[in-house]
Design goal:
The protein has 6 helices and no strands. By secondary structure, it is an all-alpha fold.
Length: 132
């Protein structure tokens, strides 16, 4: 009985092994420009700066006062392009250090409000119910 199944089974296994692909996959390397690496690193650090700013108690209180959900604002920041994130970081760099910071916080909130409004108008987010 074993000899009856051995010949067809062995032929099947031989053809199966022949059809297997034993070629080695080669790695493809390319040159990555310095600007691309620097831009990606700056984008990540800029996003973390904005997230740190949004985590501040004063900013979250201002969001709540203006009727904005702070978690939704963080999600909207994640959907921003690197160029928009760098523009927000430039504004944050120009803010004065120390002091009460009320004007700076209000300015940042207004800027984030307009960014969220624009992303709502473009249909990327759904933060404000009054935007169609």
């Amino acid at each position: 009985m074993i000899c009856y199944f051995a010949k067809p089974l062995s032929l099947f296994l031989i053809f199966s092994l022949i059809l297997l692909d034993f070629t080695a996959n080669t790695a493809k390397a390319g040159i990555i420009g310095t600007e691309a690496v620097v831009n990606s690193l700056q984008g990540e650090s800029s996003r973390s700066r904005i997230e740190t700013f949004l985590d501040r108690r004063e900013v979250q209180e201002s969001f709540v006062k203006n009727g904005i959900d702070p978690t939704q604002a963080k999600k909207s920041v994640d959907s921003l392009t690197d160029q928009e994130v760098s523009q927000i970081c430039k504004v944050l760099d120009q803010l004065p250090a120390g002091g009460d910071g009320v004007g700076a916080v209000v300015g940042a909130i207004v800027l984030i409000f307009f960014v969220l409004l624009i992303t709502d108008l473009l249909g990327l987010t759904n933060v404000f119910s009054f935007v169609n």
